[in-house]
Amino acid sequence: MTTAITLQQGFTLKNGTFIKNRLFKSAMSEQLSDAQHNPLPGLATLYHAWALGGLGLSITGNIMVDRNALGEPKQVVLDEQSDLTEFKNWAQQGSINNTQLWAQLNHPGKQTPNFINPEPVAPSAIALTNGLEKGFNTPRALSEVEIINIIAQFQTSAKLAKQVGFTGVQIHGAHGYLVNQFLSPRHNQRDDQWGGSIENRMRFVLSIYRAIRTEVGDEFPIGIKLNSADFMRGGFTEEESMQVVKALSNAGIDQIEISGGTYESPTMTGHKVKKSTLEREAYFLSYAEKVRAITDTPLVVTGGFRSSKAMLSALQSNATDFIGLARPMSLDTQLPNKLMASDDHAIRLPNLTTGVKAIDRIAMLDITWYEAQLARIAKQQQPKANLGTWPVFFKTIYSAGSYAFRKRRA
């Protein structure tokens, strides 16, 4: 350990934005929108609870920039058709207690289930694989006019996010969504200025960043969630990721959250993670150590952290500036306060199973069980660590039908 950084120590971004501590809530799927894809009041309740719990920076779940391109049935959309009333309430309640609350902006590209959108779009007309072919249709390749329009949609959503009171935005550039699809040579096989070399493939994300920056100004934070790699043959590599990190850093991005994996190879959930990595708790810390050598842009590592000791070790090694937490926050809204109060605090996540492997696969408990916890908090109920898996299965079937169990990822 080289420095004595603590979890409660504040951090000032280069643009002057102050974040009161090093604990960062990463995005999770909430599924708390109304039929018009505006936020339900429960989202404000949920994020209010997290803000009281001591978070320094909280990132919303996916806020989609195009209401005709959704990754999940009950996602929030922020565009010119949105009713801004509950967005304002959400932003106000989630930023109490000096908490930063940033809106995560996203477009799913081809990762939109066929029951939501039968004609998805992507950089190239290449289908998802690894068993996803039945649930996701082969996409249509975007025209250049459509690409420019999507960049403008990100810009509009960022403008509205600032207007309603979010204190920053994060571009979702990971987990196989559209920005990640443009970066990946596996999914982007275009022969124009948007494809081919890594310089061309990163043009889309850099264009989104610059459009948002032009709209919101230099003092409004813009972050990105970026894959360290796709962990697939022919996909976005670690070396290419570091080139994108350099380009975004040079362009002025305020923060980079490191993740990895896609629908086809879901490393972000701990899928096929090495035992040595699990013991260290942080799935992507080794990559962050390499990135630290090429940029001074503030970094967040998300995935696997469960204990104060591991978090402090990561911070004090100087590999990351912030500790990203996701699923643990759904089981204890006061977790940040507890982690900061004790160097020995830890949280365990349950091994979720119905006892029937086929049902486990269908039920997607690694998402639906945690969504059920978020729904409880949104209703001002306490999370329930012993919440039964079968009740979650039947309740989700009842409330959302078969759509609830199509392939989904946060």
Nutshell version of this structure?
The chain has 410 residues and is an alpha/beta fold. The protein has helices spanning 41-52, 85-94, 144-164, 178-183, 198-201, 203-216, 238-251, 275-280, 285-292, 308-316, 327-331, 335-341, 357-363, 365-378, 389-400; strands at residues 11-12, 18-19, 23-25, 57-59, 63-64, 76-77, 100-106, 121-122, 140-141, 168-173, 222-227, 255-259, 299-302, 322-325. The two termini are 33 Å apart.
- β-strand number: 14
Q: Tell me the major beta sheet.
A: 8 strands, parallel, barrel
* Low-pLDDT residue intervals, each spanning 5 or more residues: 267-280
Give the terminus-to-terminus CA distance.
33 Å
Shape: globular
Oligomeric state of shown chains: single chain
Report the average pLDDT across residues.
90
What features would you describe in this structure?
By secondary structure, the chain is of the alpha/beta class. It has 15 helices and 14 strands. Strands 3-4-7-10-11-12-13-14 form an eight-stranded parallel β-barrel, surrounded by six helices. Helix 7 links the parallel strand 11 and strand 12. Helix 1 packs parallel to helix 2 (85-94) and helix 1 packs across helix 14. The longest helix is centred in the middle third of the chain and has 21 residues, at 144-164. It is globular and about 55 Å long. The two termini are 33 Å apart.
